[in-house]
Amino acid sequence: MRDVISIGMIGFGTVGSGVVKLLEEEKDLFERRVGAKLVLKKIADLDITTPRVVTPAPEKLTTNVMEVIADPDIDIVVELMGGYEPAHSFLLKAMKAKKHVVTANKALIATRGSDLFQVAEENGVDIGFEASVGGTIPIIKTLKESLVANRIQSIFGIMNGTANFILTKMTDGGEAFEVVLKEAQRLGFAEADPTFDIEGIDTAHKLAIVLSLAYGKNVNFDDIHVEGITGITGQDIAFAKDLGYRIKLLAIAIDRGDAVEARVHPTMIPFGHLLANVNANFNAFHVVGSASGSIFLYGQGAGMMPTASAVMSDVVDIARNIREGISSRVPARSIREADIVDINLRPFEEIRSNYYFRFSAVDRPGVLSKISGILGEKNISISTVIQKGRTRQGAVPIVMTTYKARERDVRAALEVIDRLDIVLDKTVLIRVEDDDL
């Protein structure tokens, strides 16, 4: 059996620094748990001069990535550079060189994971990607291994710490979206360009990975409905509180038997649900299995050390396999690639949900009955109505929640309502989840 297992790393940013820190500070712990020494042999990055929180020996640093990929002594390649290319090409080259790989690259796994998994299986190597979803939360391993006896009935997740931080501050502090976004950037929770976080794209990448694991099928990322949080206002947060809800950016997967619903959008959740109480930059997953029932996972979804912890969980798993002379003990998606088929996602316009509407209407008799009549014509039943005082613009906000309705009918009704001369602005729509949670 092997006494030393060598690691090469591509990308030496925040997470890479955390991995190096763990390898240096916990080397004895890893050796006891693996039964062999884990040695970081080489780190490739375009920038090897900027100081980090750790300082590897100069001979371990290179700007030439092939010194990692082509080194016959390196057993595991850890990719932490992010992006689509050249990360995708580097991983393919490493696996074809019979090296095991670990990545935290959610965008790459979500959009091009199928070919990476196929190449890994063809070359008899392992690919680990625990850090791609949920940071330190072991959602990947839970779906791949712990819940293999279950048909996954639903997954509701808060998967983006930036969006959750913003919504928490808006809810608890009453601050405006733009103000909180700047604070998130200052604290390092949001990137200089926060588009992927606030528009729901990052969450959708993670949902695509989770779907693939939960159902053992290929997922076309473009088929997932995605909405972000930029349209959420303090007014809607206040109305949500009045109704007993908090607003969260949720990733939702529900098995409807003939198809799976997959969607990302702001969602009202009842105060009493655990997900409604996941705040700041934390992530959480509520999974329901056919045999397990409800499972709740909660923790840090990003950050140097939490993500490095997830990376090292994959490294240790693979190192244990190497020491025993085995690989691919657990398929990348818990099912052999030859048995993977395309997932059947329900068209978004066919989903059924409860809804919150906020109309900005003129203050005159008959407005409420006019709006209610149009909703009724589209088979949309009203659950509650809130009407508050006149605004400075002479309009009054009218809030309605509905019983279960079909998305297609809702959109058709709002198209008619928004053209009325008594409605002064586009209707705000937020979906409400309580029946399926």
Question: In words, what does this structure look like?
Answer:
The protein has 14 helices and 19 strands. The protein has about 425 residues and is of the alpha/beta class. The longest helix is centred in the last third of the chain and has 21 residues. It starts with a strand and ends in a 5-residue tail after the last strand. A hairpin with a 4-residue loop joins β10 and β11. Helix content is about 35%, strand content about 25%. It is elongated and about 80 Å long. Strands 7, 9, 10, 11, 12, 13, 15, 16, 17, 18 and 19 form an eleven-stranded mixed sheet that branches. A six-stranded parallel sheet has the order 3-2-1-4-5-6, sandwiched between helices. A two-stranded parallel sheet has the order 8-14. It folds into three domains: about 170 residues, Rossmann fold; about 150 residues, Dihydrodipicolinate Reductase, domain 2, CATH 3.30.360; about 80 residues, ACT domain (Alpha-Beta Plaits, 2-Layer Sandwich), CATH 3.30.70.260.
Name the shape in a single word. Answer: elongated
So what's the CATH class of the largest domain? Alpha Beta
Briefly note the CATH topology name of the largest domain. Rossmann fold
Q: So, CATH architecture of the largest domain? A: 3-Layer(aba) Sandwich
How many structural domains can be distinguished in the coordinates? 3
User: Strand content of the residues, in percent?
Assistant: 25-35%
Q: How many DSSP helices?
A: 14
Query: What would the average pLDDT be, to the nearest integer?
Result: 95
Cα separation of the termini: 48 Å
The named CATH superfamily of the largest domain: NAD(P)-binding Rossmann-like Domain
In helices, the fraction of residues equals 25-40%
Total number of β-strand segments? 19
Radius of gyration, in Å, reads 24 Å
Largest sheet: 11 strands, mixed
By helix and strand content, what is the structural category?
Answer: alpha/beta
Indicate the low-confidence ranges by residue numbers.
none
